[in-house]
């Protein structure tokens, strides 16, 4: 019988993870992971602290080779491909790291220009124009000549996002985009992420602890468990909150205190408060 977690849209998924095991030396972080990221979806990697969300993200963006299993990008086996092919596939990815990861000695504009200078042969005037366009997409065109130390945390995130967009990626990966932002800035970033999906047709994979943000933007996802070291639920965060019978998932989604979780008979391990 077909696995109901896979190919739910009928169309071939942009990313397909098949029976993947991730480990550091003898330490297995996650095993037997299988899921699809549908084109145009906002897919959430969820779970308590230390369950392996960032590790899964690393394997998806090409920074960690799985111990077993396959990761298919548009049906092409990423880790079985040559290094040159992997580099080419990787150019379709845009990554926004937690801090924005801007170079402090470069202006915002120079940061956004970096991938264009590294991966294209465009002349400086064309790069400047593209940088202006990418910054305008995130509402940061006025900050092109400012240094990261002169702008707020939310602006750094948006500048990092403009840099992630520089090469017109098909898929964007966000690691804790709202971390450290106040609720209003965080909600503006959510709107921006939704606009990128709806306006540019990007597919987005997101690691986040921020439940309001996940409920607002993610339409699919998996819930990773630190104890069993695999995914224990698949689906949109809001649907998991409302219908998932698993007490770990329910407690995470409803952010119950450990005492309340103990009353359900479930272990609080791996649930971040
Ligand atoms: N390079 C590494 N070498 C060894 N162990 C690692 C390495 N990177 C991460 N780990 C371990 O892998 C496990 C999963 O870490 P990971 O950062 O992926 O979890 P996470 O779910 O993203 O956590 P958080 O929500 O707290 O950021 C942790 O036990 C961590 O200590």
TrEMBL record:
SUPFAM superfamilies hit by this protein: P-loop containing nucleoside triphosphate hydrolases
Pfam family, one: ABC_tran
GO molecular function, one term: ATP hydrolysis activity
Keywords: ATP-binding, Nucleotide-binding, Transport
Span of domain ABC transporter: 15-251
Highest rank taxon of the organism: Bacteria
InterPro entries (alphabetical): AAA+_ATPase, ABC_transporter-like_ATP-bd, ABC_transporter-like_CS, P-loop_NTPase
Protein name (Swiss-Prot/TrEMBL): Polyamine ABC transporter ATP-binding protein
Species this chain originates from: Rhodopila globiformis
């Amino acid at each position: 019988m077909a696995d109901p977690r896979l190919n739910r849209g009928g169309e071939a998924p942009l990313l397909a993870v098949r029976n993947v095991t991730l480990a550091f030396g003898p330490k297995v972080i996650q095993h037997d992971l299988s899921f699809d990221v549908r084109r145009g979806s906002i897919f959430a990697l969820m779970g308590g602290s230390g369950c392996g969300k960032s590790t899964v993200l690393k394997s998806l963006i090409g920074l960690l080779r799985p111990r077993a299993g396959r990761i298919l990008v548009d049906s092409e086996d990423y880790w079985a491909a040559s290094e040159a092919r992997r580099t080419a596939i990787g150019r379709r990815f845009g990554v926004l790291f937690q801090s924005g990861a801007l170079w402090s000695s470069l202006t915002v504009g120079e940061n956004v220009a970096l991938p264009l200078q590294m991966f294209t042969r465009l002349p400086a005037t064309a790069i400047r124009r593209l940088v202006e366009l990418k910054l305008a997409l995130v509402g940061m065109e006025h900050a092109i000549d400012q240094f990261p130390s002169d702008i707020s945390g939310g602006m750094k995130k948006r500048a990092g996002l403009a840099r992630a967009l520089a090469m017109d990626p098909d898929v964007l990966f966000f690691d804790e985009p709202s971390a450290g932002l106040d609720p209003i800035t965080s909600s503006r970033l959510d709107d921006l992420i939704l606009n990128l999906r709806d306006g540019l047709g990007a597919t987005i994979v997101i690691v986040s602890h921020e439940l309001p943000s996940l409920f607002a933007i993610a339409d699919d996802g998996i819930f990773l468990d630190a104890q069993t070291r695999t995914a224990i639920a698949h689906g949109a965060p809001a649907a998991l909150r409302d219908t998932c019978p698993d007490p770990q998932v329910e407690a995470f989604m409803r952010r119950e205190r450990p005492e309340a979780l103990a009353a359900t008979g479930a272990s609080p391990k791996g649930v971040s408060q």
